[in-house]
UniProtKB/TrEMBL annotation:
CDD domains: MDR_like_2 (cd05289). Transmembrane segments: none annotated. InterPro entries: ADH-like_C, ADH-like_N, ER, GroES-like_sf, NAD(P)-bd_dom_sf, Zinc-ADH_QOR/CCCR. Residues 19-320 form the Enoyl reductase (ER) domain. This is NADPH:quinone reductase. The keyword NADP applies. Pfam families: ADH_N (PF08240), ADH_zinc_N (PF00107). SUPFAM superfamilies: GroES-like, NAD(P)-binding Rossmann-fold domains.
Length: 323
């Protein structure tokens, strides 16, 4: 089924060679065709993540992608067309998508195609204006919590808690009944994690001795797990606060990787985009207010500036607006 208003061509941001932000340019491309197991999305907004920069640099290129490559693995918008086998969404639905494979291009465009299994109806509690910034980070945060598998009431330390994945992990962890110590970046980061419900909010740029003292004061028996969104010396120091048998989990791609400590296993994880995880994510989101914090919004024509902004520090996520 196809919305009758779908054009043959669209505006998109794409690149014909790998390199820095300047290789991305605006051009007119054909609207991708929809296979039986796919959906066509009229894109409202798209997340801008470090993985998009890796794609632009030629490090993480989706299988089957060919120049010109339209980047963007995160997006939200309305369903403009569905394939004959699609039953989970309908034309006109407002959805978000985390497309781990997208040989027909990503969400830096007016229209994008994805496998229907990567799409989910937007749950109540998420702003449609910010939804495109959420999918990959939210699913990765959920996978990190699954990797830790902490029981209700346990203390969890989230390192990098004010970042794109981190601030979503804070909210998902609270919905799972965990007590959260959020180590954020700077005063703005501390303010963000405090607002979204962290039990203890700390500035990771502060004195390490005082930070550790605050953690031990809150969790005298140690934290049961650490969810690491970044690595380095500060994280290594914070592992001292783990309880016996405590676990460190980190997303693949975190550098430097967390160090093993005696009796403290380290587990790596990846985000999982499938109907089961999308349903779980929606159920957790709908349990209460849920904020997708966008630090800065860019129109599609400012995509180069958005990629340059990726190299700086900011709380939450960056967003491209398409509609």
């Amino acid at each position: 089924m196809v919305d009758g208003d779908v054009p043959e061509q669209m505006q998109a941001a794409a690149f014909d060679e790998f390199g820095g932000p300047e290789v991305i340019t605006l051009r007119i491309l054909p609207v991708p065709e929809v296979a039986d197991d796919e959906v066509l999305i009229k894109v409202w907004n798209a997340g801008v993540g470090v993985w998009d920069a890796y794609e632009r640099e030629g490090v993480l290129v989706p299988e089957g992608a060919a120049f010109p490559i339209v980047p963007g693995s995160d997006g939200a918008g309305t369903v403009a067309a569905i394939g004959g086998q699609v039953t989970n969404v309908a034309v006109g639905d407002l959805v978000y998508v985390a497309a781990t494979t997208r040989p027909k291009g990503g969400f830096y465009a007016e229209y994008a195609v994805a496998k229907a299994e990567y799409a989910a109806k937007l749950p109540q509690g998420v702003s449609a204006q910010h939804a495109g910034a959420m999918p990959t980070d939210a699913l990765t945060a959920l996978a990190g919590l699954d990797a830790l598998g902490l029981p209700t009431g346990a203390w969890l330390l989230i390192f990098g808690a004010s970042g794109g994945q981190g601030h979503l992990a804070v909210q998902l962890a609270k919905r799972q009944g965990l007590k959260v110590i959020a180590v954020a970046s700077g005063p703005d980061g501390v303010a963000l994690v405090t607002r979204i419900g962290a039990d203890v909010s700390l500035d990771g740029h502060g004195d390490h001795t005082q930070v550790i003292a605050r953690i031990r004061e809150a969790a005298p028996d140690g934290v049961a797990g650490i969810l690491a969104m970044a690595g380095g010396e500060t994280l290594d120091r914070l592992t001292e606060t783990l309880s016996d048998g405590g676990v460190v989990a980190y997303a693949h791609g975190v550098r430097p990787e967390p160090r093993e400590r005696p009796g403290a296993p380290v587990r790596a994880y990846d985000g999982v985009a499938n109907p089961g995880q999308l349903q779980r994510l929606n159920e957790l989101i709908e349990a209460g207010p849920f904020e997708v914090h966008v630090a800065e919004t860019f129109p599609l024509g400012k995509v180069v500036e958005a990629h340059r902004r990726l190299k700086t520090s900011f709380p939450g996520k960056l967003l491209l607006t398409i509609r």
